[in-house]
Each structure stands twice: as structure tokens, then as C-alpha cells.
Amino acid sequence: MGKMTGNEFLVKALQEEGVEKIFGYPGACVIDIFDEIYKQDQVELILPRHEQGLIHAADGYARATGKVGVCLATSGPGATNLVTGIATANYDSVPLVCFTGQVATNLIGNDTFQEIDIVGVTRNIAKFVIVVRKREDLNRLIKEAFYIARTGKPGPVLLDLPKDVMAELGSDEYPEKVNIRGYKPNTKPHHGQILRAMNMIYDAKRPLFLIGGGAKIAGAQEEMCKLMETLKVPVVTTIMGRGIVPTNHELYYGNIGMHGNYAANQAVNGCDLLISIGTRFNDRITGKLGTFASDAKIIHIDIDTAAISKNVTVDVPLVGDAKEAIALMLSIAENEEPCKVDEWLSRMNEWHEQKPLVMEEKEKLVPKQVIDAINEYFDEPIVTTDVGQNQMWTTQFLQLYGRRQMLTSGGLGTMGYGLPAAIGAAIGNPGREVVCVSGDGGFQMNSQEIATAVIQELPITICILNNGYLGMVRQWQDLFYDKAYAGTCLRRRKSCEHHCDGDFSKCPPYTPDFVKLAESYGAQGIRVFKKEEIIPAFEKAKAKTDGPTIIEFIIENEELVMPMVKPNGSITDLIMERGEE
After folding, report:
1. How many other C-beta atoms are found inside a 10 Å radius of the C-beta of residue 318?
2. SS3 457
3. What residues does the Thiamine pyrophosphate enzyme TPP-binding domain cover (predicted)?
């Protein structure tokens, strides 16, 4: 058995785990780790321009590849800049291992320069966090960190690394096995509960699958599609579950929830059996809890025991891996006749035809035209979104099938996620088309990461839907606050003497000029005003193979995301167009 410093061993452990990329930003407490990374070429260091960009890039890398994303930041502000990204990954069950530098153990608690209790800060927003206080614990804790991050319900793990501990010599042996007392994730669904669930499905007159992001994380796309087709039972999804089955499939009826489509929301409240897989029933999909699926029996399949009956009381709880559960259900369904649900499907089709998801074309560009063009032009893209109206429009209209992917911050709703996530996705998938859809507000949260995309020579197409507002908040102000656009107009200057009255000719120019901003970083910048300019802009972006292209789409200023559930309303209590509120 040889000896290594903790800094040397960390790099060896990354190599043993098969880590190919580490997203890191240097500082005094991690400079020795960076020195060890510099000495080898098996693990590549990716240097973003801000720690929040760093962790969102690692998140996008993890979601797009299925691997564990790895982060490295220094102590104090470096560590605290990871906090939003840790919470983002935690809500959406993304496997991350985050290493943070820490001051020497004898200085902890003394208000030392760049000292922060990052374990205390992140304890409630991560799957597991710990300070490595002894060199002899380092090897085991790194192995456990990767195991905890990727197993059970995936999530972020943080190891805080004091500088003196990492300088000590210790064993160079990387553990082969993990045995954590009290952490034994259960992935095997209970066979008796599966049989009970299947009997209920065959007895139901109006069964409905509700699929969330957990089923996608489990990699159950193929099995879920086969199960749906074998049973002939319709499917709706949360926005995180969108893409679990092809969005152009005749048995798929769209997203449910606050901005879900009419047919999907009606189906949840009209079904007599709801089979929920991999969703925690958060408020954005349930609306008023007392009215959610009130006439239905509920089967809930989830790998997280704590998620069962947490928000919605269920009739059949089933803890286990979604892919394994769906595979077991399929093995039974393949030996039975399809469900007799023709009347139920006819009713759902009537709802779909009665109030389809549409957007009226106007003088200016409308967002659906941009998303439709993405559907048309790109073959198998990875599409990331920011958060806000741009996110909702993308989740409504983006077509997902085959290898197409969509990455979005669904649980925390983190503005600034889209661009760095696209960078991580592109780094993890060389040669794949990567498209980022962002709003003008969210894009500016991490716009410095244009530099990272340029330095990494990533041919990402970045679509900024610019309506001049923080659009989602403005939408609420439009509908429920008498158009009092407090703090949401991004063109408003101190010298403005009027409140926005819809006459945009009075407004000062938008800041920044996104085309000039792109060019200042060495990226390509394009501005689009008309529908017929969209595809040529995409063609120009595709022709640039050595870096990103930013396309600013000047869209209708006051376009709304519709439908929309009324505040405190049932998910069937929908506003379909302006004036109904």
C-alpha cells in the first residue's frame, strides 16, 4: 500500500470513478488540488466564468449524459456561489458530487478569511453533505459520495475539504465496495403491489398515466411507451416527464398543471384511476389539492418513500425504481388484452379538439413560431431552457421523440440555468446539436458564460426570446395587478416619466444590445424580427462550427402563456385567453 496526499488521492479517485470532466474554479483553498489536476490528462478541467455557471454546467452535463456531474470550488464565496445550483439539482434529482475547499481545521470557527460553514448552509438542499476532518476518512467518503449521488433517488452530494487534511499523507487505495449503515436504497418494486395495481388498471373505465421526471431519470422511455401501447391507456406528463413517450404519439395528451393543456388537465380530474410514476405531486401540477383527481383512485410509484402520500393521499403506494416497476407491469400486460377504454379515449380526443394548444400569429413574432422552427430544423437536439415564459412555451410546443432531449429547471425554477446547462450538455455530447431557449431576463443571469462557450469552441445555438420584460411576473401583473409592471420592464430607465401603457414607441432602447454582446465575446450575434428570418438564422448558426451563436428574437411584448390555472383554482379552472380572468 502506497501513500498519497489527499490532493493527489482526489485526482486518483476521479480517475477510478471514470470522471472525464470536472467543472472547477480555482482559489487559495483548492490551489493544490488544481495543481494535481494540471499534472495529468485523464480528467479534463472545464473553467467556467462563475461558480453558478460552473454547477449548472455540471448539472446539464449530468442530465444529458446520465453520468455524475463533478464540481470543484474554493472556500467561502466560491462555495456559496454553488448553493443555487445544489438546490436546483436536488429538486430535479440530478447526480452531482461537489468538492469545496475549506480553511485548515484549526481555523474553522474563527471567522477566518474565506471561511464559511458550507455544510450548514447546504444541509437542507442536498442529498448528503460532510466535512472531511480526517485524512483516513477521505478515500471512503469520496467513494460514498459518488455512490450516494447516483443511487436511489439521485441528487447532489457535497464534500468539504479542509486544506490541512488534503495536504496529509494517507492510503492510496480506492475502496471497491460501499457499505453505508442506514442507506440501502430499495429499487425492487413489491410484486404483490404490482399485481394489485394491474388489476385496478384492468377494472378501471377511465385509467390515466401521469408520468414525471423520475421515470425519465430511470431511463424508462422504451418500457413506458410499450406499456402505454399494450394497455391502450392514455398518458399525460409533468413538464419534467415530457418526452417519456413521443410527444406526437396518439396516446399522449400533453402536460398537466398550471400551464398544462386543456385536455390533459380535464383528463386528470375526469379519470377514475390515476397511475402516477415518478412525480411528487407538487403544487404546480395539482392546483387546489382538494379538487385534484378527486374522483379517482391513485396508484403512486416512486423510488423515494418520503414522496408517497406527501402531498396527495394515494390508494396504492409502490416504492421502487420506475423502470423496474414499468417492466414488471409490461410483463403482465403483454399476456392480457388491452384495456377497454374506447369511450374514454373518445372523450379525451373531444377535449383535445375542443380547445387545442395554439397561439395566434400577430404582426410581431410569437414564441410558438420559434419553437416550431426548432422542431422543424433540428434533427435530434438537446434543448435546454431558462425559466419563465420561455420555459413554459418550450415545454408546451417542443416536440420530443427519438434521441431528442429537454433539460430544464423544473423544481426550483432557476433563472440563469439555460446557457450553462447547454454548455455542459454540449461538452458531454460532442457532435450533438444543442439549443438553448432563454428569455432576455434569465439570459442575463449567467451571460458571462458566453465566454466559456467560446473558449470551449461549442457550436451552441442560443435563442433569446426578447419581449423586454421579466415576462412571467409581468404576466401576473398583467392579469391580476391591473398592468402595474413593477420591476419587470427591462427597458425602463431612471429618466422614464411614464408607466407602461402599451405604447412602446416611448421606450428607451433595450440594454444590452445582445448582438453586440455576443460579438464582444467572439460569438456570432443575429437579430430576428420576422417569421421568414428564423430558418435562415438557424442555418447561419449551424454554419458556425467553432463557437456559439446568439439569436435574439424580437417577440410580441405582451404575449401570454396560455392556458393558465386561476390563482388558488382547480387545474380544470383554466384561463384560456386574455379577458377570462
Report:
1. 24
2. coil
3. 386-553
pLDDT of 503 > 90? The answer is no
Q: How many CA atoms lie within 13 A of 238 on its CB side?
A: 25
pLDDT digits (tens, 9 = 90+) for 519-545: 999 999 999 999 999 999 999 999 999
Cα angle: 34, vertex 445, 69; to 5 degrees: 40
CB 450 within 8 A of CB 517: yes
The CA-atom distances, in angstroms, between 110 and each of 53, 78, 105, 123, 381 are 30, 19, 10, 21, 50
How does DSSP classify residue 105?
G
Q: Which of 4-8, 129-133, 244-248, 564-568 has the lowest mean pLDDT?
A: 564-568
Question: DSSP class of residue 65?
Answer: H
Helix axes 6-16, 135-150, angle to 10 degrees: 30
pTM: 0.96
- Per DSSP bridges, beta strands 574-575 and 564-565 are antiparallel
Q: Which residue matches cell numbers 435546454?
A: 384
Do 63 and 55 meet the contact criterion of CB atoms below 8 Å apart?
Answer: no
Q: Measure the CA–CA gap between 315 and 299, rounded to whole angstroms.
A: 6
Query: How big is the chain, counted in residues?
Result: 581
How far from chain centre, in Å, is Cα 6? 33
Interaxial angle between packed helices 389-397 and 367-377, expressed in degrees from 0 to 180 and rounded to the nearest 10: 50
Question: DSSP letter string over 407-443?
Answer: E---SS--TT-HHHHHHHHHHHSTTS-EEEEEEHHHH
> What is the grid cell recorded at 69?
456531474
Helix H or strand E encompassing 376: helix 367-377
What are the beta bridge partners of residue 384?
407, 436
- Give φ, ψ of 146 to 5 degrees: -65, -40
Distance CA 228, CA 261 (A): 20
Question: At 36, is the secondary structure helix, strand, or coil?
Answer: helix
Cβ pair 489, 471 in contact under 8 A: no
Give the alpha-carbon dihedral of 376, 377, 383, 387, to 10 degrees. -70
> Distance between the two ends of the chain, CA-based, in angstroms?
71
Of 142, 125, 189, residue with least CA distance to 11: 142
- What amino acid positions are annotated as catalytic residues? 51, 113-114, 163, 472
Tens digits of per-residue pLDDT, 169-183? 999 999 999 999 989
- Please name every residue paired with 158 in a beta bridge, in sequence order, or none if there are none: 98, 129
Contact assessment for residue 241 and residue 221, using Cβ atoms and an 8 Å cutoff: no
Q: Which three cell numbers stand for residue 461?
A: 445555438
Phi/psi at 384 (5° precision):
-105, 155
The Cα angle at residue 6 between residues 116 and 128, in degrees rounded to 5: 50
Distance CA 433, CA 542 (A): 9
Which residues lie closer than 8 Å to 342 by C-beta, 6 or more apart? none
Q: Measured between alpha carbons, how far is 73 from 62 in angstroms, rounded to an integer? A: 18
Q: For residue 47, with 0-12 CB atoms within 10 Å meaning exposed, 13-18 middle and 19 or more buried, which class applies?
A: middle
| Calpha distance 432→424 (Å, rounded) | 12
Closest of 399, 394, 363 to residue 556, by C-alpha: 363
